[in-house]
Amino acid sequence: MRKITYGQAICEAIDEEMARDKNVIFLGEDIEILGGNFRATPGLYEKYGGWRVRNTPISENSFTGLGLGAALTGLRPIIEIMFCDFMMLAGDQIANQIAKIRYMSGGQARVPLTIRTTMGGGRSTAAQHSQSLQAIVCHIPGLKVVMPSSASEAKGLLKTAIRDDNPVIFFEHKMEYNKTYEVPEKEYTIPFGVANILKGGKDITIVGTSNLALKALQAAEGLTQEGIDAEVIDPRTLVPLDKDTIINSVKKTGRLLIVDEGCERCGVAGEIAMSVLKDVFYHLNAPIERLTTANIPLPFSPALEFPLIPDEKKIYQKAKDMVLG
Amino acid sequence: MENKFNPIKDYNLPKEKLIKMYQDMLKIRYFENKITDLYSKGLMPGLAHLYIGEEAIAVGVCNNLTERDFATSTHRGHGHLIAQGCDLKRMMAEVLGKEDGYCRGKGGTMHIADFSKGILGANGIVGAGIPIATGSGYSAKVRGTDQVTVAFFGDAASNQGTFHESINMAAAWKLPVIYVCENNLYGISVDIRKVTNTKDIATRALAYDIPGVIVNGNDVLEVYRVTKEAVERARRGEGPTLIECKTYRWKGHHLGDPGRVYRLEKETKEWMARCPVKTYKERLLDENVAKDKGLVIIEGDVKQMIEEAVDFAIKSPYPKEKEAFEDLFIEQEGVK
C-alpha cells in the first residue's frame, strides 16, 4: 500500500470533500499560503480560491461563530483552530452556541460544522500550546469528539466528520503530521462510534486515545516478549463512545488500562473507566488503571516535559505491573 | 432627543406599509403586555426580558427584510421575531414552555428561533449573535445570493469582543450584514455612559471604515429609512453598516427588576413620553394617513390575535419528560 504522511492524509480528506461538495468551506489562521501552522493543507487555497479557503484574523471566538452562522445557512464549514489551547478563546461559541443551538431550537437547526484542532505535547511549546483538552468538549452535550490515531484513521474519520450534519471537534496530534503511514488510495470513510481493535489479546485491555493507541500497540508487542497477551483498542471517537467493544474486551481479559494525554482529573480516562465499570466489575482481576499526564501544566524544558507524557515505555511498564501484580 | 419627526409623506411609502408597521408595533406591545400579565400570574417560567419602548427598531428594520434574509436576535428578542412575521401562537407557547412552542419547550423566551423566517435564534449570551450573523453573511457571499443578515444587539454587547472581531471581518470582506445596535442606555443596571467613553456607539464604525449611522430608535420611519439604505448597500455588495438606534427600555432588565434603583424616574418618564407606538399613531392621524376608526379596528384585531395566542399556548400540553432526550443530534436516537 502507498505511504503518505498524517498531514497529507488530512489534506486529502479536505480536498476530496471540497471537490465532492461545493458547500464545504475551510477557514482558519494561516491556511492560505502556509497551508496551516503545521503545513498540513498546502495547495487548497490555490485550488479552491479565496472564498472557500480563507485566512481569518486572529479572532477565534468570532471566526468560530462565523462558522456556525455559515453552517446554519447552507454551508458545511471546516474551521481550523491552530491549537486546542486557543479553543478556550472560542469557548462561548463552542459551548453555548454550536453545541446547543439544535437542541435549544427544538431540532430546527442543522449544524454541519467541523472544528479541526491540534493537541498534545512533545514539541517544547510549553503550557499554552501543548494541552489535550478533549475532556472539556466531551463534557458539553451536543458535540461529537474525534481523536484519530494514524493517518489512515485521520483521513477516514475526517471525511465522516465533514459529512456529519452535527458539530464535530476533531483533534489532531501535533506530533503526527510528518509521520508516514499506509493509507488506501481508494476512497473510504470510517464511521463514528465504532472502536478499532488494533490487536486481540487475553490478559489485559489497553485503550489508547489519539496516537497513544499506536504507542499502546508498540507496548503490546513488547509485552508479548514477557508472555503477556494484551488487547489494544482505539476508541476513535469519544462522543459517541463505543462502550460495548471495551466492555466485551474487558470481560475477556479481566484488566483495563486506559491511556490518554489529557490531565488525569475529570479526564477522558476516568470517564471511560466509570462508564464501563458496572458492566465489567465482576470480571475484573485487577483495579482499572489509567495513564495520563499529571494535574500540572506541561512545562517547557524537554527534561521536564517528556517524563510527564505517556509513551510506549510507560504503557508497557504499567500494563506489566497490572498483569504480574 | 425631542419628538421631532419628518412628515410621513417624505418617506414615500404606500399606505399599506405605513399601517402594517403600526400593526407590527402594536403586536409587540400587546404581546409584551400579555407576558407581564402571564408572568405575574405565575404562568410563565424563567425570566421575561421585555422590549416595550423599543418596538420601532424591530419593526423599522424587519420591514426591509424578506423571509429569505436572516437575523440573529438577543435575550430581549420577542420584538424581532414578531416584526419578522413569526407565529404569535407558537411564540407564546414557547414562552410558556409548551409542546407546541417553536422550540418544543426547550428554548423558552430567550431562545426562540424560526429558521423558516430566517431567525437564527434569540440568544442568552450578550453579543453572541454577532459572529453568527457575520457567518450568515459570509455564507450568502459564498453561495452567491443577495440575502442580507441583520445582527440585533444592545449597547452592552458593543463592549464584547465579538463586536470588534465580527465587524472587523465583515468590513474586511464586505459582507452583507447590518449591525443594529439598540442602545437603550442600560446593560442590566449599568449605565452605558459610565462604562464607555464615547457618547455614541456608531462612531466606532470609523475604526472599520464602514458607514456608522445614528438614528432615533423611537421613530419607526427613520429606522426604516436608514435600514433600507444599509440593506441596499449590502445587497449591492458594498459591505456592512453599523446602525445605532437611540432608545430606552421602559421596564427593568427583566420582570422582577422594577428598573428604578439605578435610573432616575425623570429619565424614564421623559422616554415614555417619546413612546414609539403612541407618537406614530398621532402622526398617522394628524397627517391623515389613517382615521381613528380604522386604527381602533386594528387595535381590536391585534388584541384578538394575542388572546388567541394565549389561548393556544395555555391549551397546548407540556412536553413529555422523554422529549428532553430528543433533538440533540441529527439522525440519532436519543442522547449518546
Compile the SSE list and pairings.
The complex is a heterodimer of chains A (325) and B (336).
Chain A: E1 3-5, H1 6-20, E2 24-28, H2 44-52, E3 53-55, H3 60-72, E4 76-81, H4 91-98, H5 101-104, E5 114-119, H6 134-138, E6 144-146, H7 151-163, E7 168-173, E8 180-182, E9 196-199, E10 204-208, H8 212-225, E11 230-234, E12 237-239, H9 243-253, E13 256-263, H10 268-280, E14 289-293, H11 302-305, H12 312-324
Helix pairs in contact in A: 1-7, 3-4, 8-12, 9-10
Chain B: H1 15-40, H2 55-62, E1 70-72, H3 78-83, H4 88-95, H5 129-143, E2 149-154, H6 161-172, E3 177-183, E4 186-187, E5 190-191, H7 192-195, H8 205-208, E6 212-216, H9 220-235, E7 241-246, H10 265-272, H11 276-286, H12 292-315
Parallel strand pairs in B: 1-2, 2-3, 3-7, 6-7
Antiparallel strand pairs in B: 4-5
- Report on the biggest sheet of chain A: 7 strands, mixed
Q: Report the average pLDDT across residues of chain A.
A: 97
Order of helices and strands of chain A: EHEHEHEHHEHEHEEEEHEEHEHEHH
Spans of at least 5 consecutive residues with low confidence of chain A = none
Structural class estimated from helices and strands of chain A? alpha/beta
Number of helices of chain A: 12
- Our estimate of the beta-strand percent of chain B is 5-15%
Write down the overall geometry of chain B.
globular
The share of residues in extended strands of chain A comes to 15-25%
Please give the count of helices of chain B.
Answer: 12
From the alpha carbons, calculate the radius of gyration of chain A and give it in angstroms.
Answer: 19 Å
Q: Say how many strands of chain A there are.
A: 14
Tally of strands of chain B: 7
Q: Give the fraction of residues assigned to helices of chain B.
A: 40-55%
Largest sheet, spatial ordering of strands of chain B: 1-2-3-7-6
Instruction: Report the sheet with the most strands of chain B, covering strand number, pairing sense and barrel closure.
Output: 5 strands, parallel
Judging from the principal axes of the Cα atoms, what is the shape of chain A?
globular
The neighbouring-strand order within the major sheet of chain A is 3-2-4-5-7-6-12
Percent helix among the residues of chain A? Answer: 25-40%
Q: So what's the oligomer here?
A: heterodimer
